[in-house]
Each structure stands twice: as C-alpha cells, then as structure tokens.
Amino acid sequence: MNQLIKALNNIKKYAAPKSTMEILQHVKLDLHNYVLTLTTTDMEATAITSTSMFGENFAVTTNLQKLESVVKSMIDPLQLSVDSDKLVVSDKNSKAILSTLPVGEFPHKPEKGKWLGHLDLASIKRVCLFASSQYADRIVLQTILVKLSGNEVIFSGVDSFKLATIITEFRPADDFEPTEFLVPAAALAKLSGRKHLDASVTIFSGEGSSYATFRMNNFELIVTLVEGKFPNYNHIIPNEFSGELIVGVKDWKDALKMLTLVAGDNLGITRGYVKGDSLVISAKDGERNIVEKGIPVFSSVGNIPQFALKLKDIKPVLEVCATRNIRVKFGSQAQNNQDYTKSPLIFRDVVSDSEQPLSFIESPQVVWQALCMPMFGMQD
Q1: Which listed CATH number (3.40.630.30, 3.40.50.720, 3.30.70.2740, 3.10.150.10) goes with 117-234?
Q2: Contact 78, 2 (CB under 8 A)
Q3: Residues 6+ apart with CB under 8 A from 144
Q4: Would the pLDDT of 360 be above 70?
Q5: Domain boundaries, the chain
Q6: Fewest Cβ atoms closer than 10 Å to its Cβ: which of 164, 214, 310, 317?
Q7: d(CA 12, CA 4)
C-alpha cells in the first residue's frame, strides 16, 4: 500500500461524500517543503494527516473518492502537481488529471487555542455506543461529555435508557483548570479503529463556535463542540444494592444469540432471573411462547431480583465489556427475588484475582461502568 493511500485512509471517514456541498466531498491537499498535508471535513469534524512527497509547493482541493480510485490504480513513487488549476497525479507509467475547487472554499480550521494536556482515547468506543442517534431533537444525547479534573478524565455517554462512564488518566498542562465540554459521539466513535490514541487536547474559541483538537502521532481531529446541558445522571445511580452477581460475557452473548434465532429479529425485551447456580435469560417468540437459556453464575451475593431489559440496551453493554466476566449490581428497591427490579442495573468490568482463586476484582486499568434502566412494566 503506497503512502498516499495510507494517508487517505487516515482521514476519509471524516469526509462527506453524499453532501450537497461539493467542497465537503473534497480533500484538501497542501504540499509544502516536501510534506503533503491532507484534510477532510464534514463540518462537524475535521481530520488532518500528512505524508512525505517530493514536488513543488501547491494547495488545491479535489474529489476524495476520485483521487482514491486513481491512486489505488498506480504504483509508487507517485508525483502530484498542479497545472492550470488541475491536479495531475502520475507514476512512471500513467497520468490522471483531476478537477479542483479553490482552496478558499474549504472550511478553515481554528488557529489558536488553549492546550489542556494529554489523555487516552483508547476506550472511547466503550461510551460512544451509549450515546443515542435516534433523538434528532435532543442533540446532547448524541454527544460525549468530556470532564477533565485533576489527573483524571471522565467520558460519559447517555440516552433515555442506558449510560456508560469511563474514568482514565489525564496528564494536565501546568496552567490547567478543570473543565468539561460536549463532543459529538459520531466523531469520536470513528477513532475506535486507530492503534495510537494517546492524544494532546486543545480548546479553541472563535467565530461563534468552540472546538476541541485531539492530536495523536500523525493525525489531528478537530471537532465542533456542542452547546447544551448534559443530563445529570448521578441521581439515578443507586447508592445501595440488594445484591450482585458475576457471569461470563460470552455466555450472556451466546444466550442472546440463541434467543434471537428462536424468537426472531423482533425480539425486543429479555428477562432474567436466578435459578440455582444459573442466570436464566428468557424471551417470548412471535406466538408468545417463552424461550429460556441458562448461563453459569460464578459468584452471587445478596438478593437477586428478576429483571427485564431492552435487547438494544444490553447488547452494547456486553459488546464493550473489556473483560471475560461482568459484574451486575441490583438496586435495593426489589424486596425479594420474585419482584421485578425498578432500579437501574449497574454493570462493571471484573477480572480474576490472581491471589485468590475463584474471586474477582474490578479492572485496575480503567474504571468503566454502564447502567441500564429496567423495563419493569414489561414483564407480562
């Protein structure tokens, strides 16, 4: 794979190929002192990367998809140049001429800002899946709250029925002051496939908007921050719990897969209750027949009530769990194990304690927590 293709792959997620604004279908190419800087944007986020290339200095924009198709058909070394407002792409055997648009039409990036420090975005997918895309009229539910304080950063994503928070290390600048801001979840979610996600973060203000820039290795992401008030979720997190259990993530996933095969794609609600040493996951098929699958419980403490959850809420919890096992904690509203809990269910990573066989501790690397609101009125 030639270096230009690698650079285009780095940023193409942030272009807008279907936009009615032609310039957003383009990539900006700026060759200066043998460094080619490539930029794409969808107006919500801007991605920038660079690669080395010989040639005379120029700056143009051209259609990203057409450029990618041309470059894939050629072999290194490639040469880029501009001739009469046309972009010329050539190798030793072939040449392609592409139309361009003026660089002045391409959205400008902010120039000055306040550097906040370094943070790790490696776990960002674990909260992005919990931001909702279905509430177009509630923009804050499509964002991630980034809260920087002391030596830690808290990422939070939430919709009406589930949320996730993750706490990880933050290395602040010397003049840092605690701050928080809202970032579009879709922009951060596209980072999940990258290998190096240790980022330097800077905040910009200007032209009526605020921006955050995340710089990591040879990549820079500039996102337009969202104005609004993030939901205050602290009051719904239980302070007391009636019980907790630990089960295998794969076991639960396999049970849901089996239920989906039997009950069909319209499976919406799953239920659970403890029977002996098993957690029984159940659902109803289209004819209202009950289908059940038991999974082993490795540890159980206290009163474990019955629960009912939306399938679309529990799936992302299991998908982003970073450990083989998961702890489920139940609020104290249910009085006995025949009741359906009305309190949120709390999910956390757990790992085996190497010093105590068959016991578990919460993952020490990062602190991740997910919450699901039960469908306590849907048990019949």
Answers
A1: 3.10.150.10
A2: yes
A3: 124, 127, 128, 131, 155, 156, 157, 182, 183, 184, 185, 188
A4: no
A5: 3-105, 117-234, 237-372
A6: 310
A7: 12
